Amino acid sequence: MDIFDKCYSFTQAKIAKAMGVYPYFTVLDDTEGTEVLIEGRRVLMIGSNNYLGLTTDPRVRQASVDAVKRFGTSCTGSRFLNGNLRLHEELEAQLADYVGKQAALVFSTGFQVNLGTISCLVQKGDVVVADKDDHASIVDGCMLALGEMRRFNHNDLGHLDRVLAGIDASAGRMVVVDGVYSMGGDLAPLPEMAPICKKHGARLMVDDAHSLGVMGGGRGTAAHFGLTDQVDLIMGTFSKSFASLGGFIAGDEDIIHYIQHHARSLIFSASMPASNVAAVMASLEIMKNEPERVDRLWQVTERMRAGLKAAGFNTGPSVTPVIPIMIGDFEKTITAWNLCFQRGLYTNAVISPAVPPDQCLLRTSYMATHTDDQIDRALEILRGVGRELELIA
């Protein structure tokens, strides 16, 4: 059997492209944050993770340009060897302070943070326990680990308690959850979860990729609940509110020191270019000095959520700027995406395996820089599509 046979027989995406309903890898010719240019047509963007709208902020852009001029375009090596800039360590100190932890460690991507952190901490004889809705990077980190992975039903505290109770007392154990779930837009119930972890001697790691810049005044889910001291590890990415690329893990100094010397995705990957680091530092400074940006993000979010609910859409469990439009049926979801796109509205079609086959949805998300007029236009388009497909009355 030819190992490439599976490639030759994979035709679903080609068929969708031929039908003009392929919703992925859309080419953006230009972007101004809330609007993008696609084949000469301006499209309103409500499918981005640019929560604070900082990717086009002149100060962030200039910081990145200045860093290129000083440091060049690449570090040409891993931080372990020749790619460790003072800039990296300055950013780590700032991040640790921002999320309320002793130390932080910067990786080249957020995905690599979860791969490296989980796989190096969960060794043979250890058990990592993950929410069934956790991000793919968490799942992959668990699968790479030499220890055992167990799952619990999404936000099901009773199930988590039973799973932890069933682990041998001699095993090290760690629970890993998303702070904000990237599809449902709901929160991990940390106030109830932290005592369960403590009861069973389990460490708690929270992926705050979609929480930083959003929850807790921008400082994340643990800060939102006032539980920073009860969360052992806080993970974050720079590709969302921080308007860059990369990620970090923060926690007690000894734990971060261990990860620094054992995480393969850090040791064997080239370090973040200075331009990306500088963009994060500029974004972090703006987030600290302009809290009104977070306030505006929530104004936009609640205006949209109220409009969707008033129209009759099912927005699932969302309590954040990630607002799903629950549809269920695969074909109807793809049709809804296509109709929105043709009418000038960019959403994300989310289908299996990202969600169960009967829980397909349109994922929408919002920015502090969206105007009220843009939100009203998005609602008008969605209402029209919803009525046409009988998603709403």
Helices, strands, pairings?
Elements: H1 5-8, H2 12-19, E1 30-31, E2 35-38, E3 41-45, H3 58-71, H4 86-99, E4 103-107, H5 110-121, E5 127-131, H6 136-144, E6 148-152, H7 157-165, E7 173-178, H8 190-199, E8 203-207, H9 221-225, E9 233-237, E10 247-251, H10 253-262, H11 264-267, H12 274-289, H13 292-311, E11 322-328, H14 330-342, E12 345-346, E13 348-350, E14 360-365, H15 372-388
Parallel strand pairs: 3-12, 5-6, 5-7, 7-8, 8-9
Antiparallel strand pairs: 1-2, 2-3, 4-10, 9-10, 11-14, 13-14
Helix pairs in contact: 3-12, 4-12, 5-6, 7-8, 13-15
Describe the structure.
With 393 residues, the chain is α/β, with parallel strands linked by helices. The chain has two domains: 5-56 and 291-388, Aspartate Aminotransferase, domain 1 (Alpha-Beta Complex); 58-289, Type I PLP-dependent aspartate aminotransferase-like (Major domain) (Aspartate Aminotransferase, domain 2, 3-Layer(aba) Sandwich), CATH 3.40.640.10. It has 15 helices and 14 strands. Helix 6 (136-144) links the parallel strand 5 and strand 6 (148-152).
TL;DR of this structure?
This protein has 15 helices and 14 strands.
